[in-house]
Amino acid sequence: MKSIELLAPARDLASAIASVDYGADALYMGGARFGARVAAGNTVEQIARAVEYAHQYGVRLYATLNTLLYDGELDDARRQANELIAAGVDALIVQDMALRRMDLPVELHSSTQMCNRTPEQALFLERCGFARVILERALSLAEIRRIRAACQVDLECFVHGAICVGYSGRCFLSRSMSERSGNRGACSQPCRLTYDLVDEKGRTILKGRHLLSVRDMNLSMRVGELIDAGITSFKIEGRLKDLGYIKNVVSYYREQIDRALAVRPDFCRASVGESIPDFRPDPSKSFTRGESEYFFDGRRAGVASFDTPKAVGEFIGRVVRVDARGFQLDTQHDLASGDGICFLTTGGLVGTNVNAVDGCRVQPNRMEGIAVGVEIYRNFDRYFAAALERSRTRRVIPVEAEAILSAERVVVRFTDVEGVSAEVVSEGAFDKAKNPQKMAETIATQLSRSGDTIFDVRRVHTSGEDRFVPVSLLAQLRRDGLEKLREARLACPIEHRILPEDKRAEYPSESLVAEENVTNRLAEKFYRDHGVQRIERGLDLSATTVGHTVMRTAYCIRREIGQCLKRNSDLKGDLFLVRGRFRYRLLFDCAHCEMCLIDRSDRS
């Protein structure tokens, strides 16, 4: 059977535990340095504790070393990689090919930062010993199918969360505006800022809009199609999100994946344990800029969020009546006192709190900007947030127990749903029980009390002579037996695919330009060994990005504003994005349905 994995983010140890408890099959977590989220770093000790907690359930943990490396950092990166391996991580997620050349005794996953978009790239990475390829977010289902047909490597894709509008690993917009580089884990998110769209004559077409900000991804309704297309790992974005987001979104995708697996008998989940949330998961109630399936069904308009890059939450309704202190909506709703609401005005996104609800009438803390026709969103659900805060969902592994009694000993054996077992024995003199039936009931009751362990003892069998066993001894045998079973689970090997690099594999291109960002000698040697003849100095090493492509993307501003060049646009000539002293020429590659930003800023 093919295993399917729900892969969840872990900012720190607390979120790692929450991701496991609420149903993840694997975690991805950053070390102290060299991760694509510099604000989500962790010590080796924290990662080791997360590994132990995860491995109890067969949950894998992947460490992110997915930034570019400079020559002076290679030794530090090797040292951190080896420390993470010693801590027990199951794989490293990497961007820089220097790590492929370090002969590390660990499974390697090709980060989405390698811009994994084509069958040729995926096949090359497979031949170079990567056990998994993490796909670019902008791919369509048809493109994913073509990649699957070309190779056998495991494929992972993002299904939920923020979208990088530029192709991953090929965006230098942050670097063009500051010293902060997304390829070095410090993106300043300039794609969420406002820009003016200006034509070649200097006329402003759109002013002060969030022209590069796209809605968040939600592919929860397409999980089954992705399984059928060959995806084996479903990734939730969010290593900077809070615990409420983790609990809610992980629980929701656990339900969606389990539903898809239930009608696909050739597939199974990748870890063990039951997580039944004590609330109803709803991703619209956690951080979201609005939902989108992005380009899953092909390139299309309607994925942008020009008005705001902020979280708007769930749509509640449209205002149909307004008075001096309140308003009414066109739909039934469950808004409550203490909820947070927001709405768009000509000045941008405005938020306020709900003071009171009287039937259909809502009384907010402030009325400025609320008028008939305004769409109201709830970005804070007081009752839902309280339910998340109170939630103490416990992930448990079903277990059966067997007690074998004799005059000289009591043997208790625990066996979990995967067949892992542990046995404990107590020697002694055990008299006949005066009431054998009551004794059997006592044994069943005591051995079923799994408490706050990771197990749920659901059935107890008693065999042998009917003997009296003190309750205190049964409790001790239960505690010792379940701990021994936990240790046995930790000792179970988890499959690691440490694969060799095929030096004969040819890279799909004979040249690498500056935007493909080779920044150290080991990476350069790797590519030359695989047939690349010309390698430009990586753009992150340059003092300026002026004159270079700082973003390549499947997203298109022309398409969003109804001015696609394939459809007889009346907007002719060059277009530019302008923000203060920063100026970017837009280049439209209609043959590939892509847009590029060329840095034309005047830095003099």
TrEMBL record:
Occurrences of domain Peptidase U32 collagenase (ranges): 376-490
Cross-referenced InterPro entries: Pept_U32_collagenase (IPR020988), Peptidase_U32 (IPR001539), RNA/ubiquinone_mod_enzymes (IPR051454)
Source organism, top-level taxon: Bacteria
Coiled coil regions, renumbered to chain: none
Pfam families: DUF3656 (PF12392), Peptidase_U32 (PF01136)
PROSITE patterns listed in its UniProt record: PEPTIDASE_U32
UniProt protein name: U32 family peptidase
Annotated source species: Candidatus Alistipes avicola
